[in-house]
């Protein structure tokens, strides 16, 4: 009778799905009937017993526990996250333009001491034209220039453009150590229609030779001889510019760049200099000649 009941139970268990078997085994284990039946049935009925189903989260053979690993918190990363980011310090004038980090007093200290204080407000506005003010013609430099031009100077204006001046100073810091450049005053003759662009945006070497040619190179031409520049000046105007002059190589009408380790080209006499990079010059004075 007992064996017949076990056979019927086996047939019934075979028809159950895995989920139904799991629920049945769990219910029997909780009620204690499965343990009581196993103990009373004796050793002869062990072959009819079904093993306890294994839950999906259980493993057949228990593994030895891994030794605990002590993880020390990275304090540096925590401090980096908690530490507020410091504001970047402006180290160049280019980063500070417009004068976001500079007060008017600090900006004025970066400019020549003889410039008017209104040039700072002109620089802050950005849209205003650079300041042009008259200069004493009896300065020794202009007296010698007037003598070289045979008394043709009518008046002289000084151009105060803080942006171009500071860009020129940055260029000097960059090029002087490399080319061993020195600052010289040179002359440039041009049309009066070009004066506005020159004093606002500086000389543009990309326009070289568009009107009178480029015999010594396709750049911005300067000369130490003011009489040479008069022939290119229309309506009697010459620009006096500060120029960074380093090593000069010979140039021709087809020269696009100076020779290696040189920053300019020119003629063999050395009185003509052609520059090829932005802001290596600053247009400082405008000389008006007599008609």
Write up this protein:
The chain has 291 residues and is α+β, with helices and mostly antiparallel strands. The chain folds into 2 domains: 2-48, no CATH class; 129-289, Phosphoenolpyruvate Carboxykinase, domain 3 (Alpha-Beta Complex). 35% of the residues lie in helices and 18% in strands. The protein contains 11 helices and 9 strands. The strands form 2 sheets. It has a 5-stranded antiparallel sheet with strand order 1-2-9-5-3. The longest helix has 18 residues, at 162-179. Mean pLDDT is 74; it is low at 33-49, 56-60 and 86-96.
Please indicate the count of domains: 2
Distance between the termini: 140 Å
Rg (CA only): 45 Å
The helix content, as a percent range, equals: 25-40%
Beta-strand percentage range: 15-25%
User: What is the overall silhouette?
Assistant: elongated
Largest sheet: spatial strand order: 1-2-9-5-3
State the helix count: 11
Task: Please provide the count of β strands.
Answer: 9
Mean pLDDT, rounded to whole units? 74
CATH class of the largest domain: Alpha Beta
Reading the helices and strands in chain order gives HHHHHHHEHEHEHEHEEEEE
CATH-defined fold name of the largest domain: Phosphoenolpyruvate Carboxykinase, domain 3
Q: Quick one: biggest sheet?
A: 5 strands, antiparallel
- What structural class is derived from the secondary structure elements? alpha+beta
Contiguous low-pLDDT stretches (5 residues minimum) are 33-49, 56-60, 86-96
CATH architecture of the largest domain: Alpha-Beta Complex
């Amino acid at each position: 009778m007992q064996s017949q009941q076990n056979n019927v139970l086996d047939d019934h268990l075979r028809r159950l799905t895995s989920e139904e078997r799991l629920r049945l085994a769990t219910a029997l284990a909780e009620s204690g009937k499965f343990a009581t039946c196993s103990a009373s049935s004796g050793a002869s009925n062990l072959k009819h017993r079904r093993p306890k189903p294994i839950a999906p989260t259980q493993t057949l053979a228990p593994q030895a526990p891994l030794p605990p690993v002590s993880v020390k918190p990275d304090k540096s990363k925590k401090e980096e996250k908690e530490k507020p980011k410091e504001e970047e310090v402006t180290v160049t004038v280019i980063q500070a333009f417009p004068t976001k980090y500079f007060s008017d007093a600090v900006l004025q200290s970066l400019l020549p001491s003889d410039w008017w204080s209104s040039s700072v407000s002109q620089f802050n506005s950005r849209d205003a034209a650079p300041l042009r003010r008259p200069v004493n013609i009896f300065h020794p430099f202009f007296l010698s220039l007037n003598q070289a031009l045979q008394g043709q100077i009518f008046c002289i204006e000084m151009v105060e453009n803080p942006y171009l001046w500071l860009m020129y100073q940055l260029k000097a810091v960059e090029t002087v150590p490399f080319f061993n450049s020195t600052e010289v005053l040179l002359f440039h003759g041009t049309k009066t229609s070009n004066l506005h662009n020159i004093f606002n945006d500086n000389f543009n070497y990309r326009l070289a030779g568009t009107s009178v040619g480029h015999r010594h190179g396709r750049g911005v031409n300067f000369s130490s001889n003011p009489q040479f520049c008069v022939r290119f000046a229309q309506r009697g105007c010459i620009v006096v510019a500060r120029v960074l002059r380093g090593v000069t190589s010979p140039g021709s009408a087809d020269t696009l760049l100076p020779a290696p380790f040189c920053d300019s080209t020119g003629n063999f006499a050395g009185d003509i200099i052609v520059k090829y990079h932005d802001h290596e010059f600053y247009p400082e004075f405008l000389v008006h000649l007599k008609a």
